[in-house]
Amino acid sequence: MSIVRSLVAMTAMVQLVAVAAAGGAEQRPTPPTEAEIIRSLVDEAIRDTRLGSTPLDRSQIRELKRRALDDQDAADAPVGKAPTLRERQINANLSGANLSKNETIETQPGTTTVLTILDATGQPWPAVRATAGDGDTYQVTIVEGAEHIVEITQRRRVQTVHPGNLNLILKGLPSPLTFIIRPGTEYTDSNLAIRLPEFGPNAELPTAANIVSLSPGDPTIAAVLDGAMPPGAVPLRVSGASGLSAWQAGSRLFLRSTRASLVLYSPAWSETQVAIGGKVRAYAIDGAPTALVLSDQGQIVTVRLTPIEQGVR
Question: N or C, where is the chain less crowded by C-beta within 10 Å?
């Protein structure tokens, strides 16, 4: 307590000197008590401790946090226009060493890319393993209970676009499907259907006896599946069943059905593709038949084909 008493005496002397310098006109102030000096020293010690551990007040801390979040948002934002989401299909080629012909899948952070794997009949083809070459950037997951669906999530935004690879091992296939995977600049794949031109383990095989083998993904029939008329084709009038469209392109007939219950029996198709869910089907038939036989939930339906310009509208 001797230090405190010394501080009290020094404070009193300073005040006396100040009064003398002022000419003694002012009344002598009361010196601080020992308790007041102790309280002042304690307050100063507490203030120094707080400034040492937390030099900012609450409002300053909130402002720094807001600025840090703004900086992170700016770093994560794409440069220029954000990529456009798209849904599309890939017709996998099962011939050759590179089964998928290095098709490219484009991703972006915040968007899950969903792959749906189907066989030639539109049935699910399950994956048994899915891996990405850059596991730090991409998380690849096979959906439990729906193994024909694979989800791809880009974990982080990369400064430089470096393509990687995605390997899919499907049930019953001896070799994996290999794709290029990269961050999208113009487009991002949100929903991607992968069609394989083979009967998968869950295939519902047609019962027609004269069906021939499948073709490995002709882009013409893929366009027909999407509702586009083949190049140079002539549209035909279809009578006898609804939900059918037909085009004659040279020596090939293309048929599109939007009814899942309709299945072509005759004549034999040389190629077919089925959309996701199996509701839309496309067929390629060699020749120029004028009549088709289909099954509609077990009932035989005969369809007639005539050129539109010769038919009655």
Answer: C
